[in-house]
Amino acid sequence: MESKVLRVEGGAPLKGEVRIYPAKNAALPILAASLLTEEPITLLEVPRLRDVEVMLELLAHLGTRYEWEGRALHLHTPELKRLEAPYELVGQMRASFIVWGALLARAGEGRVSWPGGCAFGARPVDQHVKALRALGAEVVEEGHTFYARRKGPLGGRVVFDLPTVGGTEQALLALALEGEGTLVQAAVEPEVEDLGRFLTLLGVEIRGLGSPILHVKGAKRLGGGTYRIIPDRIEAGTYLLAAAATRGEVTLTEVRPDHLDALLDKLAQSGHRIATGKDWVRLTATPTPEPLHVEAREYPGFPTDLQPIVTAYLATVPGQSTVMDRVYPDRFTHVGELARMGAELYLRDRLLMVNGKKLHGAQVKALDIRAGGGLLVAALSAEGTTEMEGVYFLERGYEDLEGKLRALGARVYLEAQAPSLAAD
Ligand SMILES: CC(=O)N[C@H]1[C@@H](OP(=O)(O)OP(=O)(O)OC[C@H]2O[C@@H](n3ccc(=O)[nH]c3=O)[C@H](O)[C@@H]2O)O[C@H](CO)[C@@H](O)[C@@H]1O
Ligand SMILES: C=C(OP(=O)(O)O)C(=O)O
């Protein structure tokens, strides 16, 4: 059972420079896509995160040999050894579900368990099933597993009911070998585009990348190659919001400022000074920020993954802010925990009203990755000490969190168990 606790002594403004690592949510589908080729692949600078370790365990189960060289990762799947992804691995995170499309493409069949991932409301997979069926695969749902097979090359037109990141990635992988098809209302998130670029490197033809209509032409065989994953816009956003909440000054390096447009605009609206260069962003916080109205939407809108974190920031901003999440309307597991720190939050018909004020330290629990990010931001700005349980979730999404925050002057300590909790 997880027993680590993150102790945060709040109140220190974050100051300094922090390097942003590659995107977890781009790395994971790219790792799944490595199953498509028998040629070796090298990914440069892969984030060393728990989710990546789980995905590598799944790939190894399916037949991949891999080796770390510093932060680079060499992968090689000469042949698939198994065609099923079990619950023990797929149940740990969402992204592993898309190995299904890769198995179907390479082996002609594949079975996956119902996926896990963060539980912040309903997360159906009907669009994944719809896409594979529309491309001509036979799909059978058996208990909590999904089986798909194809007789010949996949092809056709998928019209998604709504833009889905995972569903679009699933369809891209399914079409990558021999398939040919069009995806309508595809997700346009940078992580989907990054997967598309990686597939292009392997030999798949994709027109329309970054737009909601994608034309995909798979190849008979795919090659290998070396690829650099895009920076993590959610990690970047977390540090920017932490800097804003603590009224500090932080420069992010190795980022894509264009991927952060929606957040940077909101931070500027709130009164903070933002400067950007080709691959860096600096936030100089105003001591008197303004409240905001934030609505999380699909890219290029405000990211749902930053919604719990911007909520935590707004809980520290005097005045009334409002927050809605149009992508995951019930993504509010952080609300009750923020309230323990004194935050005034009222949820009415999926509209969150936030009356910002100075927060105080408390014992809190992260219930999913970005809820953890939000609690962390609140704790950094709060008066007094916060002890956070659920560190497991933070470790799914943030590499070297303690080291990076300490370098920015934060007083954060990862402990085996907080003394006050040990007494329980
Ligand atoms: C590993 C990964 O990359 N996770 C991200 C990915 O999750 P994930 O790929 O699971 O999210 P989706 O983009 O698929 O979900 C978007 C919306 O579509 C709905 N939906 C999705 C699939 C489906 O078959 N049916 C359906 O109705 C979902 O309930 C949600 O309301 O994108 C989300 C939205 O940016 C992010 O919050 C997650 O961090
Ligand atoms: C919610 C996330 O991941 P998952 O989709 O795997 O739950 C996330 O990265 O914020």
From TrEMBL:
Pathway: Cell wall biogenesis; peptidoglycan biosynthesis. Signal peptide: none annotated. Its main location: cytoplasm. It is found in: Cytoplasm. Residues 8-405 form the Enolpyruvate transferase domain. GO terms for biological process: cell division; cell wall organization; peptidoglycan biosynthetic process; regulation of cell shape; UDP-N-acetylgalactosamine biosynthetic process. Phosphoenolpyruvate binds at residues 24-25. Its EC number is 2.5.1.7. UDP-N-acetyl-alpha-D-glucosamine binds at residues 94, 123-127, 305, 327. One of its GO terms (molecular function) is UDP-N-acetylglucosamine 1-carboxyvinyltransferase activity. CDD domains: UdpNAET. It catalyses: phosphoenolpyruvate + UDP-N-acetyl-alpha-D-glucosamine = UDP-N-acetyl-3-O-(1-carboxyvinyl)-alpha-D-glucosamine + phosphate. GO terms for cellular component: cytoplasm. The modification 2-(S-cysteinyl)pyruvic acid O-phosphothioketal is found at residue 118. Keywords: Cell cycle, Cell division, Cell shape, Cell wall biogenesis/degradation, Cytoplasm, Peptidoglycan synthesis, Pyruvate, Transferase. HAMAP family: MurA (MF_00111). Belongs to the EPSP synthase family. MurA subfamily. Cell wall formation. Adds enolpyruvyl to UDP-N-acetylglucosamine. PANTHER family: UDP-N-ACETYLGLUCOSAMINE 1-CARBOXYVINYLTRANSFERASE (PTHR43783:SF1). This is UDP-N-acetylglucosamine 1-carboxyvinyltransferase. The lineage of its organism: Bacteria, Thermotogati, Deinococcota, Deinococci, Thermales.
